């Protein structure tokens, strides 16, 4: 009779064989889908050399062109408005709002492939667009979804690390820790240690980025289940798209509206040009040739701050405070008084204003339209809508806000609350999953185009005083 140890060993071997077979079968399905179409990596390999050469020529011929003027107040104001980063995926216009490779949010909602029967764009398709500038076909998007699902498994040490985190450690800190620990899986780091040719940096960065993106739903889902639920998490469904899998891991996969919300959420929160803290931090760390795992972790640590990604949590706290104070009276005079009370107390109105935008954030508008379609009678949405009718006028009269219009943070938490995902401290993790779709394509582009390490010049206040005095003496 076989020993217990032998039986356990045999069972473990069979499980490994089945897991390997499942992975290969799903990978085969993914690649057979695009037998007649280029994969994302193949397509990027075709198009980037010409673009890289054009950039090299442009820098050589026009490199001495003066493109901006720097004021002293900008240096002390966080470099706001100073053109100094190359970011291919998106550009934020103060009036038009965000454009992804030249396309507005309504454009991508209309043009990008969707899940069968779905209304919202698939974030996988946006990743393709941000990297190549091209809208993928439905088959290419489906294959990319399958590839991401096939690469989603987490190494055991990362699972163990998440499980060892105390429940009172903020979900965003756990998210960053887990992604940093994935450095063990970095193909770029391994290749660099072996002395790979610089021309191949992008290829290993691509593989790392796809592997990292693929693993984020399981990391996020496990953190959510550990902190707020019973710790049990389902497996990735190899036949589902990214947003559907994330929804299922969080426990909301049976709600078709929530799945649609996740697809929209991941798409519109992904990229907002390169100057915001999370994008800039990812780009900065990546410019030192750190792996995508370390680079994204740096960006997420910035996203965790209350002046960046955590702002949506602060909006909700403020809304609940208003809801309790007004006690059902959402009239214009009542809301106006609460707004003035907030401002007169020396506080800002959360969810209003933006460093660049000078109009209503198109991401706010997209979420508002989603709410009008799916939850028009939801009390919290009605409150947000009524604030939208009052706040711009109050903030304009107040005179200290350059942009009196709502931004994305003033709405996103409300949608999640409606569907029962009420744990606001987790919202920034969802934002982080989404932001990966925007910053990882740029890391690949940076390596493909041979971008330099970022190294701006700094001065002490004494040196700035000296500099200003010299300038003034010449007038």
TrEMBL record:
GO BP term (any one): tricarboxylic acid cycle
Record bears the keyword Transferase: yes
Active-site residues from the entry: 308, 354, 409
Pfam families, alphabetized: Citrate_synt
Keywords: Transferase
A GO CC annotation given for this chain: mitochondrial matrix
GO molecular function: acyltransferase activity, acyl groups converted into alkyl on transfer
UniProt family annotation: Belongs to the citrate synthase family.
Protein name (record): Citrate synthase
Organism: Ascoidea rubescens DSM 1968
Higher taxonomy: Eukaryota, Fungi, Dikarya, Ascomycota, Saccharomycotina
């Amino acid at each position: 009779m076989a020993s217990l140890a032998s039986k356990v060993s045999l069972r473990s071997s069979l499980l490994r064989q089945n897991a390997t077979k499942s992975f290969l079968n799903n990978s085969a399905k993914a690649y057979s889908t695009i037998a007649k179409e280029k994969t994302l990596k193949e397509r990027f390999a075709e198009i980037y050399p010409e673009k890289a050469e054009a950039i090299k020529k442009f820098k050589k011929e026009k490199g001495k062109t003066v493109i901006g003027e720097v004021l002293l107040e900008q240096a002390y104001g966080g470099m706001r408005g100073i053109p100094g980063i190359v970011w291919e995926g998106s550009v934020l216009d103060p009036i038009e709002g965000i454009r992804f490779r030249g396309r507005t949010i309504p454009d991508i909602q209309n043009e990008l492939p969707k899940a069968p029967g779905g209304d919202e764009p698939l974030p996988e398709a946006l990743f393709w667009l941000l990297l190549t500038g091209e809208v993928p076909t439905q088959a290419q998007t489906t294959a990319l979804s399958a590839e991401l699902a096939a690469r989603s498994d987490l190494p055991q040490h990362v699972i163990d690390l998440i499980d060892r985190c105390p429940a009172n450690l903020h979900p965003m800190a756990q998210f960053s820790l887990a992604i940093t620990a994935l450095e063990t899986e970095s193909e770029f780091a391994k290749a660099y240690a072996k002395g790979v040719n610089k021309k191949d940096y992008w290829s290993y960065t691509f593989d790392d980025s796809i592997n990292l993106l693929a693993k984020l739903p399981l990391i996020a889902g496990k953190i959510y289940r550990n902190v707020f639920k019973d710790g049990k998490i389902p497996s990735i469904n190899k036949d589902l798209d990214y947003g559907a899998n994330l929804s299922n891991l969080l426990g909301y996969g049976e709600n078709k509206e929530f799945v649609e919300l996740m697809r929209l959420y991941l798409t519109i929160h992904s990229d907002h040009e390169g100057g915001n803290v999370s994008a800039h931090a990812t780009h900065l760390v990546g410019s030192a040739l750190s792996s995508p795992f370390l680079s994204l972790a740096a960006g997420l640590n910035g996203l965790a701050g209350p002046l960046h990604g955590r702002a949506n949590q602060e909006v909700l706290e403020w809304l609940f405070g208003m809801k309790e104070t007004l006690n059902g009276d959402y009239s214009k005079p009542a809301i106006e008084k609460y707004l003035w009370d907030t401002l007169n107390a020396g506080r800002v109105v959360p969810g209003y204003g933006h460093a660049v935008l000078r109009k209503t954030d198109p991401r706010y508008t997209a979420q508002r339209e989603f709410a009008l379609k799916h939850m028009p009678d939801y009390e919290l949405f009605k409150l947000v809508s009524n604030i939208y009718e009052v706040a711009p006028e109050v903030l304009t009269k107040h005179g200290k806000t350059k942009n009196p219009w709502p931004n994305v943070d003033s709405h996103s938490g409300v949608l999640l609350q409606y569907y029962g995902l009420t744990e606001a401290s987790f919202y920034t993790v969802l934002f982080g999953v989404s932001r990966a779709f925007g910053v990882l394509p740029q890391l690949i582009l940076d390596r493909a185009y041979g971008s330099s390490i970022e190294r701006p010049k700094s001065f002490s206040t004494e040196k700035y005083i000296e500099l200003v005095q010299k300038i003034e003496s010449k007038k």
